[in-house]
Amino acid sequence: MSKTILVTGAAGFIGFHVSKALLEKGHKVIGLDNINAYYDVNLKFARLEQLGIDRTEAAQELHYTSSTTYGEQMVFVKMNVEDRQALPKLFEAYPIDIVCNLAAQAGVRYSLENPEAYADSNLTGFLNILECCRNYKVPKLVYASSSSVYGNSDAVPFEERDRVDHPISLYAATKKANELMAHTYSHLYGFETIGLRFFTVYGPWGRPDMAMFLFTDAIINNKPVKVFNNGDLSRDFTYIDDIVAGVLTTLLDPSENTSKYKLYNIGNSQPVQLLDYIEAIEKALDKSAIKEMMPMQPGDVKQTYANVSLLKKDFNYEPNTEVAEGIAAFVAWYRGFYGL
User: Fold this and answer.
1) Fewest Cβ atoms nearer than 10 Å: which of 31, 38, 103, 135?
2) 300, pLDDT greater than 80
3) Which residues does the UniProt record annotate as the domain NAD-dependent epimerase/dehydratase (predicted)?
4) Which domains does the chain have, with CATH numbers?
5) Catalytic site residues?
6) Beta bridge mates, 227
7) pLDDT at 111 (0 to 100)
8) Contact at 8 Å (CB) between 253 and 327?
9) How distant, in Å, are the alpha carbons of 225, 227, 285 from that of 292?
10) Helix (H, G, I), strand (E, B) or coil at 207
């Protein structure tokens, strides 16, 4: 049965892919994004164009734009999630069955430079989403949390039952706050909330501030690759298709877990050393990197490693993309997108 799903952050990396997958399954998508300038807006508009959303119309504030590809099955509006006047009007205009909240001010390092942006989008904006779900009787909210909530924990793999009381970046603190806020609203108002702790997502149409994009761009353009903590880092790199599969199943499929509040790791569960990751990119590009060894970045963590057994148990989640395969797909997209 077709659902009407609000996807916030629809011009973002994960939001774009989730929206596309929902449309291909026949669901109606109401896409929302503020298209901020945290990174190149042309990439955001290009993603929307893949969904049939006209760039000029998408740039207009609070203008509801229908897709030229999907018709009224896809509607986009440029809006801030923290807008307390505009967001309720969207819920009034469309009978929304499920909310998928992927809008957030992203980036660990940027939170050191512009903390106010994180308070606006990740805290005030998330509260606004919760209030609209409450007031307009939306039965399910799936929202993005982050592996960063685990901080510098030495206990690996990371499990949902681990204590996450020591975030080391404001971004991580806002994501932990989202989990607590969602718990409160599920308890008080009875609607289902599902938090997904994403682990280092990469793939085609990815963000320019993420490692995959930064490394590929630097190697191709003969620039130094900044290798933080002298390469002594590991990440649970997770390919976008595996992430989308997990998001869609939590949005659309029933679970035997009857709790109104759910929280899951969503990752590849196969951490990779940073230097090995760079080597795999070098192989895909057939070109060596110029490595510039750097100290640890403030707010960064040494390792991430997801235990995904809970998501597998409740929703049959099974990531299956090898890192080399995912890197090759990204490199092919990058070359095509930039005409190399």
Assistant:
1) 135
2) no
3) 5-267
4) 4-202+239-267+306-320 (3.40.50.720)
5) 171
6) 293
7) 86
8) no
9) 6, 6, 19
10) coil
Distance from C-alpha of 50 to C-alpha of 56, rounded to nearest angstrom = 14
The residue to which tokens 């869609």 are assigned: 248
Phi, psi of 231 (to 5 degrees): 90, -5
Distance CA 303, CA 72 (A): 43
* Three-point CA angle 296, 299, 304, nearest 5°: 80
Is cis: bond before 295, omega within 30 of 0? no
| CB contact at 8 A, 281 and 289 | yes
Is residue 99's pLDDT more than 80? yes
> Which pair of tokens denotes residue 221?
């353009």
Q: Which two tokens stand for residue 38?
A: 């945290």
Sign, CA torsion 157/204/242/253: positive
Which pLDDT score is estimated for 303?
Answer: 83
Amino acid identity, position 304: T
User: Of the candidates 41, 173, 52, 155, which has an alpha carbon nearest to the alpha carbon of residue 31?
Assistant: 52
Distance in angstroms (rounded) separating the CA atoms of residues 297 and 12: 24
Beta bridge partners of 143: 101, 195
pLDDT at 137 over 90: yes
Could you say which DSSP state residue 148 is in?
Answer: G
Mean pLDDT check: name the lowest of 40-44, 45-49, 140-144, 221-225.
Answer: 221-225
- State the average pLDDT for the chain: 95
Specify the amino acid at residue 301. V
User: Residue 92: its pLDDT value, please?
Assistant: 97
